[in-house]
């Protein structure tokens, strides 16, 4: 059995709570909201966001890579480099052909695209920089990580809306179990806090309009929630077969025990009634993990702070897990980072297992009356957590669930 177990041996993160996994953990555990007025969104109906503070790309990339990369890829490289260091791996000595990189994104180089388009309209085609295409392509976060690490194995970008980076982790686990590689750096990145994306989500009614109090705007599962807040960032998890990790003397952080994916095949932006297809993803992930629903101690919910998602997700959790495991959402603190969100939340789930500490849901003051789950609020909760679930759902009906076990 140990040959099929997949260990998480390293994590890296860049989020609105700070650069680095530990800074992110501290911010989420403190329940500190990061939403604030955003000068780049000034004049728009929604003019606030959750941005990564103090990020210096030159601390993580060389000059040539800085010139050709968008903020999205820069986040991805920074998170991946931290994850590899955390795992105790040396890219100078590993078997590069057996190292896979799977980094997801929803929007890729969105800022580069919008900036170039403004230049085109204002000054003509010569204002479009020659770096536009490599900056904007959705495969480039994975490609830039591969180049930064010298990883020559499978290298893929995965796009399944806000479930993307959970699918990246699922694919990475599958490659290890199949023997197609020996190390996987999997995760996601997005830097889509832009005027166009803000306007688009506002037009479909997905964003919070709490302009008078941005810090309180993202409030998952709260009775007064009115939408999510744009966020950005990246996270990367290093995965290895358990036997390989132990053989080289690594200390696994957790076990990625099971994954499940489905598609509602129902609507472009709304979940299927009852979240029954998402339930199949949860049950499939538990089955792959060799676990029963009553073994789940904690759920890191997708928890977007939107009216429809929160109530349908809560109903699904209550139906499948009636023993009331603790539930939290990181989006109250970090906002919604799209293609990065599931990887960030997977990293937080790993840290929850390690610290035996369930983070609070920031801004949760009054649980909505139609939501009946055990939500962690106000402060972190110390509890025994042996098995934890991380949910991710995306436009287009994408559902992905990850199951993590505590490493002994």
TrEMBL record:
**Keywords carried by this UniProt record:** Acyltransferase, Transferase
GO MF annotation, one: 3-oxoacyl-[acyl-carrier-protein] synthase activity
**Domain spans labelled Ketosynthase family 3 (KS3):** 3-406
Gene3D superfamilies, per this entry?
A: 3.40.47.10
Asked if the record carries the keyword Cytoplasm, the reply is no
Q: Name one GO biological process term.
A: fatty acid biosynthetic process
* Highest taxon above the source species: Bacteria
Is the keyword 4Fe-4S in the record? no
Q: Name one Pfam family in it.
A: ketoacyl-synt
**Similarity-based family:** Belongs to the thiolase-like superfamily. Beta-ketoacyl-ACP synthases family.
Q: What name is this protein filed under? A: 3-oxoacyl-ACP synthase
Question: Which organism is this entry from?
Answer: Streptomyces abyssalis
The organism's taxonomy opens as: Bacteria, Bacillati, Actinomycetota, Actinomycetes, Kitasatosporales
């Amino acid at each position: 059995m140990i040959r099929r177990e997949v260990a998480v041996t390293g994590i890296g993160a860049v989020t609105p709570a700070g650069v680095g996994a530990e800074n992110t953990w501290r911010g989420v555990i403190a329940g500190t909201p990061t939403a604030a007025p955003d000068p780049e969104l000034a004049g728009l109906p929604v003019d606030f966001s959750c941005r990564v503070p103090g990020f210096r790309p030159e601390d993580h990339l060389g000059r040539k890579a800085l010139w050709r990369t968008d903020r999205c890829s820069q986040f991805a490289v920074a998170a991946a480099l931290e994850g590899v260091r955390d795992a105790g791996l040396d890219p100078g000595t590993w078997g590069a052909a057996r190292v896979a990189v799977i980094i997801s994104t929803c929007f890729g180089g969105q800022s580069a695209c919008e900036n170039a388009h403004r230049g085109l309209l204002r000054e003509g085609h010569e204002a479009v920089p020659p770096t536009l295409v490599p900056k904007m392509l959705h495969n480039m976060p994975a490609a830039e990580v591969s180049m930064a690490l010298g990883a020559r194995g499978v290298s893929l970008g995965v796009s399944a809306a806000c479930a993307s980076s959970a699918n990246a982790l699922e694919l990475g686990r599958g490659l290890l179990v199949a023997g197609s590689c020996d190390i996987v750096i999997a995760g996601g990145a997005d830097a889509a806090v832009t005027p166009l994306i803000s306007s688009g989500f506002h037009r479909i009614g997905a964003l919070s309009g709490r302009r008078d109090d941005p810090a309180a705007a993202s409030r998952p599962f709260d009775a007064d929630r009115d939408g999510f807040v744009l966020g950005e960032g990246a996270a990367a998890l290093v995965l290895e077969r358990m036997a390989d990790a132990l053989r080289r003397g690594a200390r696994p952080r957790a076990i990625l025990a099971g994954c499940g994916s489905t598609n509602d095949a129902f609507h472009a932006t709304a979940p299927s009634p009852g979240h029954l297809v998402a339930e199949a993803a949860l049950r499939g992930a538990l089955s792959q993990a060799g676990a029963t629903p009553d073994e789940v101690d904690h759920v890191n919910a997708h928890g977007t702070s939107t009216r429809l998602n929160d109530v349908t997700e809560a109903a699904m959790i209550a139906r499948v897990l009636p023993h009331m495991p603790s539930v939290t959402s990181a989006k109250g603190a970090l906002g919604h980072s799209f293609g990065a969100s599931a990887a960030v939340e997977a990293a937080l789930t790993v840290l929850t297992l390690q610290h035996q500490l369930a983070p609070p849901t920031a801004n949760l003051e009054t649980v909505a009356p139609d939501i009946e789950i055990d939500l962690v609020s106000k402060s972190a909760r110390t509890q025994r957590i042996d098995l934890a679930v991380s949910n991710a759902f995306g436009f287009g009906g994408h559902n992905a669930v990850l199951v993590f076990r505590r490493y002994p």
